[in-house]
Amino acid sequence: MSLLILSLVLSVCVNVLLLWYIRKMLKQLLSVSDNMGNLVEDLALYQNHIQQLYEMEMYYGEPSIKELIVHSSQIIEHVKQFSDVYNLVNERVDIIDEVELE
Fold first, then answer.
1. How far is the CA of 79 from the CAs of 46, 73, 75, 82, 87, in angstroms?
2. For residue 16, is it within any domain?
3. What is the pLDDT of residues 46-65, one digit of tens each?
């Protein structure tokens, strides 16, 4: 009987410890998700800024700016491969799509 009680107490303690650990890891995962969402949003804004600069009369057709646009597009596509991480916060997807449409 005492072995059963000891096992039960030990099981409850381990479960409480595991719940605490899972909660802590979920907080960190949500933080990473939020940061990655911010990164994608900032990259999209940067790409739009370079695109606007490229379309100015003074810089129209400048090959180095064109390469920056292509490179920033590649970086954004590479970061979007991790969308399952940063889409944990669903509001970010709408913001990013709005920025790309502008």
1. 14, 10, 6, 6, 12
2. no
3. 888 888 877 777 777 778 87
**Amino acid letter, residue 11:** S
Count of the separate structural domains present in the chain: 1
Distance CA 18, CA 71 (A): 44
- Residues 34, 96: Cα–Cα separation, whole Å: 13
Q: Which domain holds residue 91?
A: 30-101
Looking at residue 87, the DSSP 8-state letter turns out to be T
- Alpha-carbon span 41 to 100, nearest angstrom: 9
Distance from C-alpha of 102 to C-alpha of 98, rounded to nearest angstrom? 7
Tell me the CA distances in angstroms from 41 to 35, 46, 94, 95, one per residue in order: 10, 9, 10, 7
CA–CA separation, 43 and 66 (whole Å): 16
Q: Say what the pTM is.
A: 0.57
- Determine the length of the chain: 102
Report residue 50 as tokens: 């370079």
pLDDT above 90 as % of the chain:
21
